[in-house]
Write the structure tokens for this entry.
Amino acid sequence: MKGIRIVATGKALPKKSVSNEELSSIVETSDEWIVTRTGIHSRFQCEEESCLTLAVEAARAAIESAGISKEEIGLILAASTTSDYAFPSTACMVQQQLGISEEVTAFDISAACTGFLFGLGTARALLPQLPKRYALLVGAEQLSRIIDYTDRSTCILFGDGAGAVIVESADHEFYQKSWSRGDVSALSCHGPGLGEQHIRMNGSEVFRFAVSAMEQGITEVLQDRNLTMEDIDLVVCHQANARIIGHVQRKFRGYEDKFFINIDSYANTSAASIPLALDDLNKAGRLKGGSRIICVGFGAGLTWSSALIEL
Ligand code: ACO
């Protein structure tokens, strides 16, 4: 079966950035605590923007960067936990706002922070059946909508933003493993009409799960493909906490430099975190043709996934 090629990336961020100092004026915390426990210095927060406007802007940036016409897109997927509407889907609204044909399938993926990676696997599976060459995949979040600003252990962790990629079917290596486990107690947020809609999290439980899930994801993908970290150019982890990534790095001693971290100015942007990282890497010229990367993420569900991607 064919793999996929990442053709282009894009991103969108709200104008307003909120520093740790600013947060410490509304909740009992400090810049020092947040930086040492999470690696986060600031995060973006929507004012005029919304999850949808960010998704549209990131999608537009990816299409422009790919240099393709929107008529060549045959599938639109959006991963988000904070869509503007419970329905219609964010993907449908991106389609409408970009003026993409009604004949194109558009739907959302619900897998919290792992949504972008589940979307990548879905695009890979569907692309060979489509009459058009490209799929648009967006990860977009307005997590500031569901943050409880009286809960200091969660409100410091999250940020708003969106990232997008254009992908096509290609004879490039692509191998993915994904897992799901129904678990509400570690990490959840009520759906519409079910009371207050805030992120509720058992931080230390999620921390332990995150380290083992990402280690498992990287290890199994390498083993299944008969590869070692020597064969990998970059590891792009879901950016939830720099200390979580630090623990995973220590499991792969000697290869710490291959792990990308950009959480400092974005915080945890859930489904947007991996596409935001990919766009930053792309703009920095670090997504080189022929190289191999592993994208690995985890999130509410609990869900987790690891994808080996040849660029
Ligand atoms: N400022 C100051 N003190 C704080 C803060 C804060 N913002 N938050 C918690 N504390 C205090 C606690 O009250 C506690 O005090 P106590 O010892 O007096 O009771 C102390 O700091 C230690 O608290 P811990 O929860 O043990 O702190 P920890 O080092 O575990 O860090 C954190 C907490 C950052 C939440 C960490 O557990 C974590 O990152 N967990 C994973 C979170 C994550 O990855 N979530 C993913 C969500 S993905 C998705 O799908 C949405």
Q: What stands out?
A: Residues 43 and 159 are 5 Å apart (CA to CA). The pocket of acetyl coenzyme *A is lined by residues 29, 33-34, 37-38, 112-113, 152-153, 156, 187, 201, 203-204, 206-207, 210, 240-241, 244, 268, 270, 299-300 (CB under 6 Å).
